[in-house]
Specification:
It is a single chain. With about 130 residues, the protein is α+β, with helices and mostly antiparallel strands. The chain folds into 2 domains: about 35 residues; about 70 residues, Copper binding periplasmic protein CusF (OB fold (Dihydrolipoamide Acetyltransferase, E2P), Beta Barrel), CATH 2.40.50. It contains 3 helices and 5 strands. β1 and β2 form a beta hairpin. It starts with a helix and ends in a 9-residue tail after the last strand. About 15% of the residues have low confidence.
Length: about 130
């Protein structure tokens, strides 16, 4: 009789444990919710991760038309990078056409894993609508 009561108690305990486990949220789903709340979500990039966007202000030092890149002396770029002069790819032809050595720009740096580029370029002192 005592073994039967212990067995039934064990089954009842297991049922409660399974019910509680079934009701709990999964860790990956909670992590996804936290990432979305932090603003990390965006279009998926080639890396399989969300593409992050950071505002950038800087001065164009030179252009490389063959590589569609610009050497830019930029201030700090969010929590991604401190102030630095480096080459940035400019994927959009219309954005590249706005650039010339010596101009100051406001733009967006897009980061997809190890890949990064500049887009949404506005030359300081010009209207975004007219480009002048």
């Amino acid at each position: 009789m005592k073994k039967t009561i212990t067995f039934i108690s064990g089954i009842a305990l297991l049922s409660v444990i399974f019910a509680l486990v079934g009701c709990s949220s999964s860790a990956p789903e909670a992590a996804k919710t936290e990432a979305t709340a932090a603003g990390a979500s965006g279009p998926m990039g080639a890396s399989g991760h969300s593409i992050k966007k950071y505002p950038m202000q800087g001065k164009v030092l030179s252009l490389n038309a063959a590589e569609k890149s610009a050497r830019i002396d930029a201030g700090a770029i969010g929590d991604w990078m401190g102030p630095m002069t480096m080459n940035y790819a400019v994927k959009d032809a219309a954005d590249f056409a706005k650039l010339s050595a010596g101009v100051t720009i406001n733009a967006t740096v897009f980061v997809d894993g190890d890949d990064f580029w500049v887009g949404e370029v506005n030359v300081a002192g010009t209207s975004a609508a007219t480009g002048k």
